[in-house]
Hints:
Radius of gyration: 25 Å
Distance between the termini: 50 Å
Helix content: over 70%
Oligomer: single chain
Number of strands: 0
Shape: flat
Structural class: mainly alpha
Order of helices and strands: HHHH
Amino acid sequence: MKKYILILVFSIYFTLVQAQSNQKVAITEKDYVNQQVEMADAFRAEGKIYVVVAVIIAILSGMIVYLVVLDRKITGLEKQIKDQA
C-alpha cells in the first residue's frame, strides 16, 4: 500500500514540476527597469489597500495577543512548578 501512495505522490509531483516548466516567460529589458507595482497601484486606486492593511494588522495583533496570553500562562505554570519543588 505504501508503494502505491509513494508512486501517486511522485507522479503528482513530477506532473506539477512539468506543468511549471512549460509556462516559462521570457524576461525582457522592460521588466528590469519597471519600478511600479501594478497590483498595489490598482488596490490603492480602488481603495482596497486599506482592507489589505486592516487584515494584516488584525492578523498580527491577534498573534501578538495570543503570544502574550500564552506567555502569562507559561509563567504561571513555571511559578507553580517552582513553588512545588
